Amino acid sequence: MKRDYNYLSRAGLVKRKKTIDMVMRLYVHLIKQERDISALEIDILYSLLIDLFRNLDVSWEVYVREVTGSQYDYDSVIEYLNKNLIQIDKIRIVLSLIIMANTDNDYELSEITGILEICNRFHLNTEGFMNLINHFEFKSKELITISFDQPFISVFNSLFSDYLFFGRDSDSDIRFRSSFIANYEMLLLAIENYQFVAPGLNANVLLNGVKLMPGKLYLLPKDAKIHIGDILFDRNTLWKMYENRESRDEITFKKSDYDFSVIIHNNHHTFHVNNGVVYLNGKTMQLNRDYNVFYDDAIQIKGYSAFQLQDIIKEKMRIGVDNAVPHELYINFENDYYYISRTETSHSLA
User: Fold this and answer.
1) Among 23, 1, 16, 337, CA closest to 169
2) How far apart are CA 272 and CA 278, in angstroms?
3) Does pTM surpass 0.85?
4) By CB atoms within 10 Å of each CB, which of 252, 270, 312, 320 scores lowest?
């Protein structure tokens, strides 16, 4: 969801800038303690800074130069951040430090001690973070969770703006139409190439068939499949949606019997039919009119297979190609799920 910081008062903007300044001082202090910082660590920090300074009128490069050349009390920085950061921002900072420390595939005792000290001073439960460190070090397969017990909507006050919100609410980035879907089902965030999700209070989100519980932030495994209602998102689709959170595109689907465009803006999709018969949830879309389409909607070109928005994200070249009634279908079983495909796969049942 695109956060609007224009509503902040002058005092609010001043406080926001100071808090970001203190986050900068924390990172600079920790980097100065490193004997050898890798290019990948710099890349992770760079992406964090780009997001933090997105809505400020000062470049992060200026801040880095000023902070690097100044003297300040580290304990005062930690104390200020503990008082002024919401819990999700504290968690993100600790997660980023753990992931940065993992870039050399080895954790030094001093790194772990420093991370746990910050956890304690931020009043965060250390168990989940230690499990994450063990996961990286020993390649454990257990589901990793981080305690996140503040109200879900507190994230709207985050310093960061790169979250994706899934739900029925009009402010959701990934929006659903069904009344059975909660206003806010789930949020998604990413640090480097790791994805984390947290379900809302009234959510019904399944991860590989297991219901996610509120009050936790989950690390998505590589084989992650997320179910929200009847809609399935695999990890690759979630990545594409995350990368499209601030993008704009227009795709034209055109053949002799249909012609329509899909305008994509920050993962919101608008359909405009110029010619042919295209159905939205079984009803014909009128020509030359815009329709907002949600992720649980069914779209069908007359005479062709129905599809949904995630099909556009995954394999847009196949839309409007397959006939509505195939000659044969295959039943597949994979990761405890049954699904149907038009072609035989290694998971097809005999």
Assistant:
1) 1
2) 10
3) no
4) 252
